[in-house]
From TrEMBL:
<dbReference type="Pfam" id="PF11922">
    <property type="entry name" value="DUF3440"/>
</dbReference>
<dbReference type="GO" id="GO:0016740">
    <property type="term" value="F:transferase activity"/>
</dbReference>
<dbReference type="Pfam" id="PF01507">
    <property type="entry name" value="PAPS_reduct"/>
</dbReference>
<feature type="domain" description="Phosphoadenosine phosphosulphate reductase">
    <location>
        <begin position="57"/>
        <end position="267"/>
    </location>
</feature>
<protein>
    <submittedName>
        <fullName>Putative phosphoadenosine phosphosulfate sulfurtransferase</fullName>
    </submittedName>
</protein>
<dbReference type="GO" id="GO:0071453">
    <property type="term" value="P:cellular response to oxygen levels"/>
</dbReference>
<dbReference type="InterPro" id="IPR021845">
    <property type="entry name" value="DUF3440"/>
</dbReference>
<keyword id="KW-0808">Transferase</keyword>
<dbReference type="InterPro" id="IPR002500">
    <property type="entry name" value="PAPS_reduct_dom"/>
</dbReference>
<dbReference type="InterPro" id="IPR014729">
    <property type="entry name" value="Rossmann-like_a/b/a_fold"/>
</dbReference>
């Protein structure tokens, strides 16, 4: 990798400080308030509103627990009033991701056989993340060139083409989010009901806290560029999250109380002792699912036998996914005197050259956001109390990538209080000064503050860390 991908002067002297960046600051989001009703009733009300205000709706159905809740709520609403009959049979779209448990296929088939469901079962070579290998960052389920290595036989219900989806060359194939744009051609307005829940991540929580009205309805925003963007974004698709405020316990309570069918893969994971937070039915090759790759080997040995040969690097990932090698738990120690920029470049250079600029841009953006908020330096391990940024966090991005932008520096500030973070930051800065670390080593464009504890806001200085 050349220095051009991550040049000197990431944030030059004089960078303006913006303390009111609403697109980034968590304080700009709306506070959580009690709704005065149970989550099931609210989900039904939201779904009814979506069905009333859009020409067409469909459910994005993965076969997991959250899309199960969305599907059943939508079906119950569609049957509840004659005005919703125009949405029956309910359109349900399933993207089969190939490296999934056989129990998921069986469950999807049961749903497809319901008379009030019109299920579209797509087996397309959509672009997926392969976090098992830095040199081969993507894989394509059901790719025709890999047919001999498929994890499962092609389901007989499979749809293997979709108007507008490019099969060749592989580099042109769309991700699932971008393929969604092909499912809503004009002129009708279409809403895609999705099982997105705020409990699952800070980013998802923030996504539904910014707007006071219809905060669960989001305009489809295509991520593709150029020709592909023009092909898939027709400007008439909306995403709706009717169960955004449900907890995991709410999902399983609804399954039990209302007698909904569900994916039996969850039973196998439960019997194997896998905790609720680790129960996933999606492919295990992505950045976050990689931590749970052993679950497939333990719970789904038949599909695992094929998964073990499906993507480059999976053998190493199975053994070392939760180690320093993949940026989990501990991190490599930076050599003394080496600039953090050079240390970051070392790990960036291990990725495929085609994706190095994407990761470098992600790192530059994080640093730029930091210096829009403060003139204070980024430290090796202590997250800055305002931005949450540290070099350790940036090292994780360089090692693992963040292609879906799910890792946010603000998430580093959710475990302790403000006082603790400020004292931790000041203490590490004092040690940095004592060790003679230079601004250049920290990538800081200004002299380091002489008095670290003076940086602590006055009303926090007297409080114990």
């Amino acid at each position: 990798m050349t220095d051009a991908a991550l040049p000197d002067g990431w944030v030059p002297e004089g960078t303006p400080i913006d303390r009111h960046d609403d697109a980034y600051e968590l304080k700009a989001t709306l506070p959580r308030v009690a709704a005065g009703s149970d989550v099931y009733t609210l989900a039904c009300e939201r779904t009814a509103y979506v069905m009333d205000t859009h020409d067409r709706v469909f459910v994005a159905f993965s076969g997991g627990k959250d899309s199960t809740a969305v599907l059943n709520v939508a079906l119950e609403v569609a049957h509840s009033d004659p005005r919703f009959e125009r949405h029956l049979p309910l359109r349900v779209v399933h993207f089969d991701e190939e490296a999934i448990p056989q129990e998921t296929e069986e469950y999807v088939r049961r749903i497809a056989q319901r008379p009030d469901v019109a299920l579209e079962w797509y087996c397309l070579p959509v672009q997926h993340r392969n976090a098992c290998s830095r040199r081969y960052p993507y894989w394509w389920p059901w790719a025709p060139e890999d047919q001999e290595r498929w994890c499962r036989p092609l389901p007989p219900e499979a749809l293997t083409t979709l108007p507008g989806f490019p099969l060749w060359p592989p580099e042109e194939r769309l991700t699932i989010p971008n393929t969604n744009g092909l499912l809503a051609p004009p002129p009708h307005t279409t809403a895609m009901l999705m099982g997105i829940r705020a409990q699952e991540s800070r980013i998802r929580a923030m996504a539904v806290r910014r707007r006071a009205v219809d905060n669960y309805i989001v305009k489809y925003d295509v991520a593709a560029q150029g020709r592909q963007a023009a092909a898939v974004d027709h400007g008439n698709l909306w995403k709706a999250y009717p169960i955004y405020d449900w907890l995991t316990a709410d999902v399983w309570a609804a399954v039990r109380v209302r007698g909904w069918d569900y994916n039996r893969a969850y039973d196998l994971m439960e019997m194997a002792g896998v905790g609720v937070s680790g129960q996933r039915c999606s492919p295990a090759f992505g950045e976050e699912p990689l931590q749970k790759i052993h679950v497939y080997a333990e719970c789904f040995p038949d599909v695992w036998a094929r998964m073990a040969e499906r993507v480059p690097g999976i053998g190493a990932a199975y053994r070392y996914a939760r180690t320093e090698l993949y940026g989990f738990n501990s991190r490599p120690n930076k050599p003394a005197g080496m600039a953090w920029r050079d240390f970051i470049l070392h790990f960036l250079s291990k990725h495929d050259p085609k994706v190095q600029p994407t990761i470098a841009e992600r790192i530059r953006d994080a640093i730029a956001r930091h210096y829009r908020k403060t003139t204070q330096p980024i430290l090796p391990t202590a997250p800055h109390p305002v931005t949450g940024l540290s070099w350790r966090f940036l090292l994780t991005l360089a090692m693992r990538g963040d292609f879906k932008k799910r890792r946010q520096e603000r998430n580093q500030l959710i475990d302790d209080d403000e006082v603790t973070y400020w004292h931790r930051y000041a203490t590490e800065l004092a040690q940095v000064l004592a060790d003679g670390v230079t601004p250049a080593e920290l990538g800081h464009p200004r002299p380091l503050p002489a008095d670290p504890y003076a940086l602590i806001p006055p009303h926090l200085r007297q409080e114990a860390p």
